[in-house]
Amino acid sequence: MEQNQELLKKRRRTFHYRKEQISDAQLHDLEAYGISVQSEEQPWFFAVIQNQEILNRMAEMTGLDDPFYGAPTLIAAFAKDNAVSAVVDTAFALSSMMNAAVNEGLGTCMIGSLKDLLNHPEHMDLRNLCRVPDGYTCIGSIAIGFPDEEEDLPDHQNTDVFSYIR
Ligand SMILES: Cc1cc2nc3c(=O)[nH]c(=O)nc-3n(C[C@H](O)[C@H](O)[C@H](O)COP(=O)(O)O)c2cc1C
Fold this sequence. Notes:
Layout: H1 2-10, H2 24-34, E1 44-49, H3 52-62, E2 73-80, H4 86-103, E3 107-111, H5 113-119, H6 124-129, E4 136-145
Antiparallel strand pairs: 1-2, 2-4, 3-4
Helix pairs in contact: 2-4, 3-5
C-alpha cells in the first residue's frame, strides 16, 4: 500500500528528457500494464512512435515550440468509434502505462497537441504512418523517456473536490 502511494506521488509530469531511448523491455512492460486495465471491450489501439525524424516532423506540424519536450518515445492512443466506453477505457490504459513508467524509472507527460494532428483529415498520411485501423479516434498521447533532471513541482492544492453522502 505504502509503495503504491509513493508511486502515485511520483507520477507527476516530466518536462525534461534525456535523449537516450527507453529499452524494449521497458516499453513492453508499459504496454502490458496498459492493456491489463479493467475493460470489457478493449476498444483501443496504440501507436508507439520512436522514429526521431517522424517525431521532429510531427513536432514541427503542431506549430508549437518543443511540444514533446524532447522525449524519445510518444505513445498515441486511439479509441474505437463504435464502442460503449472507448474513451474512458483508453484513458485508463494510458494512466496504467504512466504508473508502469514510474516503476521503470521513466518520466511521462500527457500531450494533447498530437491528437489534433492525428485526427485531422488533412494529415491522413500521419495516421497511415502510424498504421491506425479505420474507425479509431486519437484521444491523446504520452511522452515517455528518462527524466533529465529532478523537477520541483508544487503540490496539488485543491482538495475541496469531494462530497460525502453517508
Ligand atoms: C488531455 C491532456 C492533455 C495535455 N496536454 C499537454 C500538453 O500537450 N503539454 C503539456 O505540457 N501538458 C499537457 N497536459 C498537462 C500535463 O500532462 C500535466 O497534467 C500537467 O502538467 C500537470 O502535471 P502535474 O499533475 O504533474 O503537476 C495535458 C493534460 C491532459 C489531461
